[in-house]
Specification:
It is built from seven helices and eleven strands. The chain is α/β, with parallel strands linked by helices. The protein has one domain (about 1-140, about 190-240): Vaccinia Virus protein VP39 (Rossmann fold, 3-Layer(aba) Sandwich). The structure holds S-adenosylmethionine.
């Protein structure tokens, strides 16, 4: 599958640019948000764990954590970085875990890369114990659509956010850096919410906070940048 081959090829690029303090969005925003919503977790599965930064953070707070990712180069880096979690190779769509094994499942910045996201959500519900928590972090599906971005309108003298083709689902490889193309699947927010409901994952909290100042200062140094979230966190409880 091209998606998996591309992750294998570009894992080192991801690790260099997005882990171990390299990315202000992870450091100042995503990792603290996940820590907040997963507080008190005891048995955690981190699906699409990459090089393990979320898994390590949860292990440091006292949880027993299993990190799972299909990409061998991510699992090798994660194991090398140690810090407590145990790692497995596997896909979100077919979790190699027993029913009701975890009290918390985290899926951070990975479901956008999974084609059968409905199957993945069914699997999340299967491995969660009743009453268990699911913490899902996505590029905000409503605002970070293909074609979205700031428009600097010199005629109206306004800066505004163009949303793009929100209702059109898109499966495409995007060149996110020179020579680095990865699969992203855009889906409207309702598809995620409906699939979670069908899986018995009932939303109980949500966060869509502004991007961190260190990030906006580096890329969009104007006040409007703080009004458009980049990340959506949805928390759900597995119905009994
Ligand atoms: C953007 S990285 C995020 C890594 C980690 N969750 C984090 O936030 O640091 C996306 C990860 O999703 C993984 N991935 C791709 N397809 C997947 C699938 N079908 N099931 C689970 N993970 C997948 C990739 O290998 C990659 O490590």
């Amino acid at each position: 599958m091209k998606n998996e081959a591309q992750w294998e090829r570009h894992a080192a690029w991801w690790q260099r640019n997005y882990s171990q303090g390299a990315d202000p969005e992870y450091e100042d925003h995503i990792l603290p948000l996940v820590a907040h919503h997963a507080a008190g977790a005891r048995r955690v599965l981190d699906i699409g764990c990459g090089e393990g930064q979320v898994a390590r953070q949860l292990a440091a707070s006292g949880a027993r954590v299993v990190g799972l990712d299909p990409t061998a180069a991510q699992i090798t880096a994660a194991s090398g970085r140690a810090g407590g979690p145990r790692y497995l190779r596997g896909r979100a769509e077919a979790l190699p875990c027993g029913d009701a094994t975890f009290d918390t499942v985290v899926l951070c910045a990975a479901l956008e890369h999974v084609e059968d996201f409905e199957g993945a959500l069914q699997e999340v519900a299967r491995v969660l114990e009743p009453g268990g928590r699911f913490v899902l972090v996505l590029a905000h599906p409503f605002l970070q659509t293909p074609g979205a971005g700031w428009v600097d309108d010199r005629v109206l003298n306004q800066r505004y956010w163009r949303i793009g083709a929100y209702l059109e689902e898109e499966r495409a490889f995007h060149e996110v850096a020179p020579g680095v193309d990865l699969l992203f699947v855009h889906r409207p927010l309702s598809r995620y919410v409906r699939a979670m409901g069908r899986a018995g994952l009932l939303i109980d909290d949500m966060d869509e906070t502004p991007p961190p100042p260190r990030l906006t200062a580096a890329h969009w140094d104007f006040p409007e940048a703080a009004t458009i979230p980049r990340v959506l966190l949805v928390r759900a409880i597995r119905a009994s």
